[in-house]
UniProtKB/TrEMBL annotation, chain A:
GO cellular component, one term: plasma membrane
Domain ABC transmembrane type-1 stretches: 94-308
Protein name: ABC transporter permease subunit
Lineage: Bacteria, Pseudomonadati, Pseudomonadota, Alphaproteobacteria, Rhodobacterales
Keywords: Cell membrane, Membrane, Transmembrane, Transmembrane helix, Transport
Membrane topology designation: Multi-pass membrane protein
Entry keyword annotation includes Oxidoreductase: no
Residue stretches spanning the membrane: 12-30, 100-121, 133-154, 189-208, 247-271, 291-315
The keyword Oxidoreductase appears for this protein: no
InterPro entries: BPD_transp_1_N (IPR045621), MetI-like (IPR000515), MetI-like_sf (IPR035906)
Annotated family: Belongs to the binding-protein-dependent transport system permease family.
First-listed, main subcellular location of the protein, grouped into a coarse class: membrane
From TrEMBL, chain B:
Entry similarity comment: Belongs to the binding-protein-dependent transport system permease family.
Pfam families with a match to the protein in the record: BPD_transp_1, OppC_N
All copies of domain ABC transmembrane type-1, residue ranges: 108-308
PANTHER family, per the entry: ABC TRANSPORTER PERMEASE PROTEIN, OLIGOPEPTIDE TRANSPORT SYSTEM PERMEASE PROTEIN APPC
One GO cellular component, as annotated: plasma membrane
Name assigned to this protein: ABC transporter permease subunit
InterPro entries: BP-dependent_transpt_permease, MetI-like, MetI-like_sf, OppC_N
Length: 328, 320
């Protein structure tokens, strides 16, 4: 067990080091960092001084090590475009993305599980068929078209909900801003959250449905029914509970996907989050922001995967035998 | 493919029959004729691809020729004569008087070109790496498959965005717009090779241990000849399925990137770029500038996708 965890952690660190190398090469080789920092009017002494100051005269591995050191402390340098610390900009943008991701995650999980259970129990009902067909369309529509469609319906035609931005926000503490506390903030959240969560919702729904169908066929469900338990108790306490292991895994893995797909949703709705920042950074080739986002999202993905892998071994004892030995 | 059964479905060229006759009598063609989904989606794909290829002949105007544009024609609704010039357009015009129908035809060319090239690139890369890692094994295999695993944990659209951003950074400023299409192909292709590599590696591992491979090795054929001429043909049907489904995904990925403004430049608008432009007119009521490109994209992606799904079922011997 311990050997497996250590090996898995080691692999994760290796991946992060490689991603760091990519991010660092972007810094080092895309354009000249000195050019980007000093303006047109500069002397050779200035250039040399800054070069020494930034450590650019050091050998490559030393520079790479310094970059990693900085990255661990959250220091990614200054944005070429905004002229501010990247970490500061990221911190300022993070609450918007996290709130959006949180709400769409909750929506996706709650509605997804509900619909999954429903379509599994009423497998042959007309409503269930309609929901399944609709979910197919939901999966094949590109996210940005769903967003545009929602904007067209609810902002342009009906005029109920705003089509862009976060609405009014309230500051909590030093750096967190929330849209939950104002009416316009809550209203602004609805359309982006649906757009972002729809794909995950259909995914969870289909997974819960197929797992439920599998479980409902098993003997202990029949015995539970034979014992005279209520239909409700059988469906939720006996069946749903046992579908949760794969569902929780998928939800865990989809967390990262939600943050990644937030890039698209944030662009459609001009949501002032980290994803929109990243897209703008690509458009303007703002390397420090790109590098920071790359590192941030990699840490998140690698971390989530590591966690899910380790949890899996804890939950499912069958996996322990062949993985820890390493010889089988 | 794990068994040799599939070889019977597509028999090697018979001596006395032409290839076309052979194809018409195959189970595959029979299944195709009997499936309405396959027929309809194949027809839609054909119509769209042909109209993209022959866009210069079909399109009423050339949207990239400033001489053919008349600013007075701007914002003409579909099928209504323009108030000033009296010209009517099938799908209306945009703000500069460009015929939307023509821009869609030309845009589809770019979407299809990028999508197909990206899949081709991913396929060549994936097949090569899959064959190499399956045939040689050892360290090569470990490294290739580890990279594949790591890449699979990231959503492919994110990988494509990152590669696009990095490649854009490395391209000199003056070439960025010119190179955007090629960078896009590189980014989408690199984000998509893993599926091919995994399938081909799996097939290679199975085939490698069979007698005919040992025999080929014994008579002294080179490893590359064995991989390409003997092993690869046995893995072609799953590769074909993945290629079709990847094409749908690549078209959507291209549209998404272009929509986000990190793909095809405005000088070479793809369907995604057109949707991005059209979104700007959503609030002022010119719905057709957005609506028709979006429908075209949907029709294209959906029909390729359905075709891929059908292909997967049709070529899967377990489902017969």
């Amino acid at each position: 067990m311990l050997a497996f965890v250590i090996r898995r952690v080691g692999q994760s660190i290796l991946v992060l080091l490689i991603v760091g190398l990519v991010a660092f090469s972007m810094f080092r080789f895309v354009g000249d960092p000195i050019d980007n920092m000093l303006g047109q009017e500069r002397t050779i002494e200035d250039v040399e001084r800054l070069r020494a100051q930034l450590g650019l005269d050091q050998p490559f591995p030393v520079q790479y090590f310094r970059f990693l050191e900085g990255a661990i402390q959250g220091n990614f340098g200054v944005s070429y475009r905004q002229g501010r610390e990247v970490s500061e900009i990221l911190l300022e943008r993070a609450p918007a993305t996290l709130e959006l991701a949180f709400v769409s995650g909750v929506l996706a999980i709650a509605i997804g599980i509900m619909l999954g259970v429903f379509t599994a129990i009423r497998r042959n009902g007309a409503t269930a068929h309609i929901i399944m067909a609709a979910s197919l369309i939901g999966v094949s529509l590109p996210t940005f078209l769903i967003g545009i469609l929602l904007i067209y319906l609810f902002s342009v035609e009906l005029g109920w909900l705003p089509s862009f931005g976060r609405g009014e926000t309230v500051s909590i503490g030093d750096w967190w801003t929330t849209g939950f506390l104002t009416e316009s903030g809550r209203k602004a959240l609805i359309l982006p959250a649906i757009t972002l969560g729809l794909y995950q919702m259909t995914l969870i729904m289909r997974l819960v449905r197929s797992e439920m169908l599998e479980v409902l066929r098993q003997d202990y469900i029949r015995f539970a029914r034979a014992r005279g338990l209520k239909e409700r108790a059988v469906n939720f306490h006996h069946a749903l509970k046992n579908t949760m292991v794969p569902v929780v895994t998928v939800i865990g893995l989809q967390l990262g996907a939600i943050i990644a797909f937030a890039i698209i949703t944030e662009t459609v709705f001009q949501w002032p989050g980290v994803g929109l920042l990243f897209i703008n950074a690509i458009q303007f080739v703002d390397i420090p922001v790109m590098a920071a986002y790359l590192m941030l999202i990699s840490v998140m993905f690698v971390g989530i995967n590591l966690l899910v892998d380790i949890l899996y071994v804890f939950i499912d004892p069958r996996l322990r035998v062949d993985r820890t030995g390493g010889h089988s | 493919m794990t068994d040799t059964q599939t070889n019977q479905a597509a028999p090697p060229e018979a001596v006395d029959k032409s290839l076309w006759q052979d194809f018409r009598e195959s189970d595959f063609f029979y299944a195709f004729k009997r499936s309405p989904v396959a027929l309809v989606s194949f027809a839609v794909v054909c119509i769209l691809v042909l109209s993209a290829v022959f866009a210069p002949l079909i399109a009423p105007t050339n949207p990239f020729d400033p001489a053919s544009l008349n600013l007075m024609n701007g914002f003409t609704p579909p099928l209504e004569p323009n108030a000033f010039t009296g010209d009517a357009f099938l799908m209306g015009t945009d703000d500069q008087g460009r015929d939307v129908f023509s821009t869609i035809l030309y845009g589809m060319r770019i979407s299809l070109f990028v999508g197909a090239s990206a899949v081709l690139f991913a396929m060549v890369l994936g097949i090569t790496l899959g064959l190499v890692s399956g045939y040689f094994g050892g360290w090569t295999e470990t490294i290739i498959m580890r990279v594949a695993d790591v890449q699979l944990t990231f959503p492919s659209i994110l990988v494509a965005m990152l590669i696009f951003g990095i490649a854009k950074g490395f391209t000199p400023v003056e070439y960025r717009d010119q190179m955007a299409i090629w960078v896009l192909i590189l980014a989408i292709g690199l984000s998509d090779w893993v599926q091919f590599a995994r399938v081909v590696r799996g097939a290679t591992l199975v085939e490698k241990s069979k007698d005919y491979v040992a025999a080929a090795r014994l008579i002294g054929r080179s490893p590359w000849a064995i991989m390409l001429k003997h092993i690869l043909p046995n893995a072609l049907s799953p590769v074909l399925v993945i290629a079709t489904i990847s094409l749908a995904l690549a078209i959507i990925a291209e549209a998404t990137l272009s929509f986000l403004g990190v793909g095809a430049p405005p000088t070479q608008p793809s369907l995604g770029t057109l949707i991005r432009i059209g979104q700007g007119f959503l609030f002022s009521g010119e719905w057709w500038i957005l609506f028709f490109p979006a429908c075209t994209l949907l029709a294209l992606a959906l029909s390729v996708n359905l075709l891929g799904d059908w292909l997967r079922d049709a070529l899967n011997p377990r489902l017969r």
